[in-house]
Design brief:
This protein is of the alpha+beta class. About 40% of the residues lie in helices and about 10% in strands. The protein is globular.
Length: about 280
Amino acid sequence: YYPDHPVIREDWAQYLESIEHVDWEVGLLLKRLEDEGAADNTAVIFLTDHGVSHARGKQFLYEEGIKIPLIVRAPGQVLADSTRDDLVAHIDIAATTLDFAGVLVPETMQGRPLFGPNAMPRDHVVSARDRCDETVEYLRSVRTDRYKYIRNYLPQRPHLQPNRYKDGKAVIKTIREMHAEGELNPHQERFFTVPRPEEELYDLETDRHELTNLAADPAHQETLQKLRRILDEWIETSGDQGPETPEAYDSDMAVYLSNRRGLQRDILIRNIGTMKAWAAEGK
């Protein structure tokens, strides 16, 4: 779903190289625990931010954006050298650390312990995306072991909305330039297509890159209805209130602009104007 372009290849290479560096840094931390005699009574939990900041990664609900590493070392609590494919949410980390310490997880917490006799496996996880920086978005998703359901509440906006942070990335600049020159294939053009589908459904078993939307496929309507219900129930039980009010947006943007200068401030002002104009048009 990304163009085969030298700039994008170089960016991915740097990303993979950074993983090697992180591995080395984590090794130093683990060695220090060993040297200080604390390794056997310390739980180490390694996880990352949500994806590389590409067009489908960080800030979006495709696998590139929500599937991240989780590595846990906890002697006496976690079986060493084991691999699991459980569905896990970030909020499960707090519940897991309480469980490690022998503390009862309060019923008011949505997180679940991941290990031991108190483990409570999930059959789905819900993800959400709202405004990031100046860019207004409203997405929700449900991910099961096989399927991904995405609901786009602002389908009249393109996937790649203006965003000062992401538009400064070489990868995004390249994709925008290739779009302007008509050099993207149909899958890649979906970054700019308006309207977006209001619903997306992907079979991750057969379509790991989430390219074939099955939401309108008659053979998958039962799955679609099931995931719709799960999301609707989560919205109700979690108290999901959707996006912020226009007044809250204006207030945050005033603070956001207060310490920006020069070109970056000009870009933000332009993007904020676009967001407000689209909202006024009902987009």
